[in-house]
Write a structure and sequence with these properties.
Helix content: 25-40%
CATH class of the largest domain: Alpha Beta
Order of helices and strands: HHEHEHEEEHEHEEHHEHEHHHHEEEHEEH
Radius of gyration: 21 Å
CATH topology of the largest domain: Amidase signature (AS) enzymes
Shape: globular
Structural class: alpha+beta
Number of strands: 15
CATH superfamily of the largest domain: Amidase signature (AS) domain
C-alpha cells in the first residue's frame, strides 16, 4: 500500500473511521507536507489552516461519540481557487478581483463539507481559468511535480499538482476546455468531467454570473478512480431551485469486467496530431484490453466530421466565455472580426469571431452541436465507451511569453499550435458527454500519460467503472519520485 499521504481518500476515510489515524493528525500531516514541498510547486496558494484544525478537532470529537458526518468524515482536502469558500479570496487569478472575499460557500463546497471533508486551502489557476498552464499575477506559477520546468496543466493545474505530490487527499476542479482532464493527464492523477448540468456550478463562477455556462462543468480530481466515484456521488444533483421538480438517477454500468466492454479506440485526428509517445501508451492499453478479451475497434467513430466538430466547439466555447470582455474589448473584437479574411480559419480568427457571435449564428452552431449529440447517442447504442487522448502531448515546458494562440508544442518533431489540442477537449465535451482521465503509463522521458474515457450522456458511472478496472488491472497512480 502507498504511504499515507498518497493513499486514496476512501482509504484515509476508512482509517479515520477505524480510528487508526485521527482527523487532526491527518490534517497536520498534509499541512506539514505543504510547508515542506509546496515552495517548489506553488500549488496550494490559499491556506486556511487554523479553521481547518478547529474542524478536524470537532471531527475527532464527533467520531469519539459515535457521530459520523458522512463518507468524507475528517478527510483533508483542497479546492480549486475559483470555488467560493466563505472568508477566503476567489480571484480566478485576476488582479482586479484580489480583494474579492467570498461571503458564502459554493454549492459543491457545501456538499463536500456536508459529507465531512476538512477543507484547508485552495489551489492555483491561470488567469480567468483560460490556459493549460497555471500562472497568474497574484499567485505566480505552479510547477509539475514530475518536472518542475513543465506545466502541471490547467486550469485545475494546482489541483492536480497538489494531488500528485501528496499535499492533499482530494480536489474539486472545473472543465470547459479540458481543465480537469488535461491536468490529470499532465500530472498522472485521475479526473472526471461530468455530464453537463449534473453538478451545480453555483459559487464556482465569476462575480457577476448566476446562470449556467454552456459546456462548463465542475467535478472531482483524485488519486484513484474510486475516489472520483465517491466525490461525484457527493457533488451531483440539482441545486435547491431545481430540486422541487427533478432528481438525478445516473444509470449503473452494465459491463462488470473488462472483457464485457465494447470500446472504440481513437489515437489521432487530422485536426490534432498526437505525439507517438502518447499514442504508444494508448496502444499499449488497447493491446492489454485485447488480451483481456475486451472488444476493441480502432476504426469505429460517431458519424461526425472532425473538422466541423472542432470549428463548432471553438465557436461555442468562445461564445460561452464572451461575457468576460469589457465593453471596450467587445467593440475592439467586433472591429477585428470584421477585418478578418473570410478564408482565415486559424484558431485565433475563429475565437475572435466567436467572441462577438450573433445570437442567430449561435443558434446555428447549437443546431450543429445537437445533430452531433444525436450522432454520439447512436454511436453509444453499439459501443460502451470511446478511448482517446486527453491531449496530443505530455506535459510541456512553461511558456509564458506569448499569447496562447501563438504558443507551440512539439509533436513528432514538428511545432504545432498548442490550441490544436483543444480538439480533444471539445470533440465530446461540447456534446455534454462525461469523460474520465485515468493514468495510462509514462513516456520514455518519464512523463505521465492519461487516457480519456468518453461515455454516453449520463454514462458517468460507466466511465468511472472502467477507470476502476484499469486502475486495478493495468495502471494505478504512481507518486512522482521527488515527492514520495
Amino acid at each position: 500500500m502507498l504511504d499515507i499521504p498518497f493513499r486514496s481518500a476512501r482509504q484515509l476515510a476508512a482509517e479515520i473511521r477505524k480510528q487508526k489515524i485521527g482527523c487532526l493528525e491527518l490534517l497536520d500531516l498534509y499541512v506539514g507536507r505543504v510547508e515542506k514541498y509546496d515552495g517548489a510547486l506553488n500549488a496550494v496558494v490559499v491556506r486556511d489552516v487554523e479553521r481547518a484544525r478547529a474542524r478536524a478537532r470537532a471531527a475527532d470529537r464527533a467520531l469519539a461519540s459515535g457521530d459520523s458526518w458522512g463518507p468524507l468524515h475528517g478527510v483533508p482536502m483542497t479546492v480549486k481557487e475559483s470555488y467560493d469558500v466563505a472568508g477566503l479570496p476567489t480571484t480566478w487569478g485576476v488582479p482586479t478581483h484580489k480583494g474579492n472575499i467570498a461571503a458564502s460557500d459554493a454549492v459543491v463546497v457545501e456538499r463536500l463539507l456536508g459529507a465531512g471533508a476538512v477543507i484547508f486551502g485552495k489551489t492555483n489557476v491561470p488567469l480567468l481559468l483560460a490556459d493549460w498552464q497555471s500562472f497568474n499575477a497574484i499567485y505566480g506559477t505552479t510547477n509539475n511535480p514530475w518536472d518542475l520546468a513543465r506545466s502541471p496543466g490547467g486550469s485545475s493545474g494546482g489541483s492536480a499538482a497538489a494531488l500528485a505530490a501528496g499535499l492533499t487527499a482530494l480536489e474539486a476542479g472545473s472543465d470547459i476546455g479540458s481543465s480537469i482532464r488535461n491536468p490529470a493527464h499532465f500530472c498522472g492523477v485521475y479526473g472526471h468531467k461530468p455530464t453537463w448540468g449534473i453538478v451545480p456550478r453555483t459559487g464556482q463562477a465569476l462575480p457577476w454570473q448566476k446562470a449556467a455556462v454552456d459546456i462548463d462543468v465542475v467535478g472531482p480530481l483524485a488519486r484513484s478512480a474510486g475516489d472520483l466515484a465517491m466525490a461525484l456521488a457527493v457533488m451531483v444533483g440539482p441545486e435547491p431551485i431545481e430540486a422541487a421538480g427533478w432528481q438525478l438517477r445516473l444509470p449503473p454500468p452494465k459491463p462488470q469486467r473488462l472483457r464485457d466492454f465494447k470500446v472504440a479506440l481513437m489515437l489521432d485526428a487530422p485536426e490534432s496530431r498526437v505525439d507517438r509517445a502518447v499514442q504508444d501508451r494508448l496502444q499499449a492499453l488497447a493491446d492489454f484490453l485485447g488480451r483481456q478479451q475486451a472488444k476493441i475497434d480502432d476504426r469505429a467513430r460517431p458519424a461526425i466530421d472532425t473538422a466541423e466538430a472542432f470549428a463548432v466547439y471553438t465557436r461555442l466555447l468562445r461564445s460561452a466565455t464572451s461575457d468576460r470582455q469589457s465593453d471596450a474589448d467587445f467593440e475592439k473584437n467586433v472591429a477585428l472580426a470584421a477585418a478578418l479574411a473570410a478564408d482565415d480559419q486559424s484558431y485565433n480568427a475563429r475565437a475572435t469571431r466567436a467572441a462577438v457571435l450573433s445570437h442567430r449564428d449561435w443558434l446555428a452552431a447549437n443546431e450543429a452541436r445537437t445533430r452531433m449529440r444525436h450522432a454520439w447517442a447512436e454511436f453509444f447504442t453499439t459501443y460502451d465507451l470511446l478511448l482517446c487522448p486527453v491531449a496530443g502531448v505530455a506535459a510541456f515546458p512553461h511558456d509564458q511569453h506569448r499569447e496562447r494562440y501563438d504558443r507551440t508544442v512539439v509533436v513528432n518533431g514538428a511545432e504545432v499550435p498548442v490550441t490544436d489540442h483543444l480538439f480533444w477537449a471539445g470533440y465530446s465535451g461540447m456534446s455534454y458527454l462525461p469523460s474520465t482521465a485515468a493514468p495510462c503509463g509514462f513516456t520514455p522521458a518519464g512523463l505521465p500519460v492519461g487516457v480519456q474515457i468518453v461515455g454516453p450522456q449520463y454514462g458517468d458511472l460507466t466511465c468511472l467503472a472502467f477507470a476502476r478496472l484499469l486502475e486495478r488491472e493495468f495502471q494505478a497512480f504512481v507518486p512522482p519520485p521527488a515527492f514520495a
